[in-house]
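Hey, can you fold this?
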Amino acid sequence: MPVKIRLQRHGKKGKPYFWIIAADSRSKRDGKFLAKLGFYNPTTNPAQIDLDVDSTVKWLQNGAQPTDTARAILSYKGALMKNHLAGGVRKGALTEEQAEAKFNEWLEQKSGSIDHKKATLSEAKDKAKAEKLAAEKAVSEKRAADAAAAAAPAEEEVEVTEATDDAPAVEVEATEEATETPAEEVKEVEVPAAEEAKEDEKEA
């Protein structure tokens, strides 16, 4: 019976995750399987992968063939590396201790590269967040400046209208003074004429 190591889709639309399974190559994609070896979540960055390496190596040694995607995942998690080292032990090229030491060294290098990638992604995320905050701050400052510039002409218009309202009042006062002064002069002129009339009557 040909056995395939492949992915079985789960999850909802737009947010998939996959089981890594060993199944008969003639079964449906989401049908029955022989063993569940792990899961793969591609929606995170970096992708989340959990794999039972020892069980996967046993299936590989028994002739299971991974699909292209499954092969990439097995290589990423070191299952193919461990299977290669196990072949060297069977041939006598390596001891089990040497194979285990090489595999642990490979795991350390891999975990270091993964940690570096996570740190780089975190820095990029923080930088993007800081740039976004700076852009929002610049936009808010520009809006405040525009609002202040729009308010300044309105205040000047109010001052100009107040000044124009005061000007006619001054002119009216001036005209009133001008009209009052001739009346006083007329009174001053009329007073001597009355006195002359009284003096004429006394003489008569």
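Oh, and this one too while you're at it.
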Amino acid sequence: MSGAEQPDQPPANPRFVTTHWSVVVAGGDPNSPHAAGALEELCGAYWYPLYAYVRRRGHAVEEAQDLTQAFFARLIEKDWLAEADASKGRFRTFLLTALNHFLAKEWRRDQAAKRGGGKVLVSLDDTAEMRYAQEPASQLTPEKIYERRWALSLFDRALSRLRDQYATAGKSRHFDFLKQYLSTEAADGEYARVAVELEMSTGAVAAAVHRLRQHYRELVREEVAQTVESPTEVDEEMRWLLATLS
């Protein structure tokens, strides 16, 4: 294994992603050349926690889909993004507050756009309800399920970025074997079995897992940093995320 003795190196992180507060600012400015892309990223990242919140509040499937789609459309139409102020709270709080305002004051069933009509920023199909069907059967409040799904979304985004970086580096197979150790410790002899599959030494596998975990933590922190006003708030938000999922 002469060429395989070196520990697997995680791919270099190509960039620090623009914060979501910056995305909000761009999305709220119709003259911004980045507005369309910003809105697409915004909606794609956070539609599910909001959908789960609406469903847990008792709305039926089709109504919840309509409400979620209409909320994002109204977010743009009413220029609510321009009112977002990072200094007044977390990005997750801003979105939930805006959604509650929409549900309480803005939504009119008799004025709801027909399915397929109007501008749809979030396309919801059966996968939305399939995901919701997997939510815990416990009596989680709408707020708690929103917070839980928000936290999981951040971790999922970090994991997706990590997977993409390994794929770009041609190391998808390494990732597939090592990703299980992001959340669990290896049993006796497991690293040796993985080492055979990846043509690495057992020590190199252990080092690769360490680097994978370290890189994943960095990506999670980057995702968190996008949703707070300043880097000094990242640790506090990280503690909140872990407490939410505990």
